[in-house]
Amino acid sequence: MEGLDFTPKPSLKKPMNIAAIVVSILVLLLVGLMRRPEYKIHTEIDFSFLAPLHAGINALTAIVLFFAIKYAREKKFNLHRKLINLALVLSALFLTSYVMYHFTTEETKYCGVGTIRYFYFFLLITHVVLAGAILPFILITYTRAYTGRFAIHKKMARWIGPLWLYVAVTGPIVYLMLRPCFS
Question: Is residue 23 part of a domain?
Fold first, then answer.
């Protein structure tokens, strides 16, 4: 990451905002389509090995985000920027792999019973809903900082950072709870 130019680029405000919206719409469309049986891709490759990888990437993202938030609070902005960039790369890697996995692999149904089932579905639902809802806000919050609009970036990041962290933490928990149900 050495040599990266972190100089604010206000001229990129409009193109980055448009890109954030377009990427968010495309991702939401893909996530919606991957659940539909008619869009399943049948292949000889077994992509089931990706599920634990997703949990690992999410766990690593959670650690990176924790330190990114910590460094922002300590006003160590160069470290914060580098870690946020890494969190975005990890999230993009996760998302690409996650979509590929769900387009090619049958969904695993949760097999737990009793109270733990309610806890699992609470985590799953909040994880999925927040993951879908915060993506555009993550990208727009990033754009605010990248284009030098730090005051509004800070206001947005106070809400978005903890939500993104929640999504990154609950992903591996959901995986670990679902793991006994894989065939």
Answer: yes
Query: pLDDT tens for residues 127-173?
Result: 999 998 999 999 999 999 988 889 999 999 999 999 999 999 999 99
Domain count, the chain: 1
The pTM is what? Answer: 0.85
The tokens of 59 are what?
Answer: 């766990």
Q: What's the pLDDT score for residue 79?
A: 96
Rounded distance between C-alpha atoms, residue 171 and residue 106, angstroms: 18
Average pLDDT along the chain: 89
Task: Domain of residue 59: give its range.
Answer: 11-37+48-181
SS3 content of the chain, % helix, strand, coil (to 5): 80, 0, 20
- Rounded to an integer, what distance in angstroms lies between the CA atom of residue 160 and that of residue 139? 10
Residue 5 lies in a domain: no
Residue 42 covered by a domain: no
Q: How many whole angstroms separate alpha carbon 145 and alpha carbon 34?
A: 32
In a domain, 58, yes or no: yes
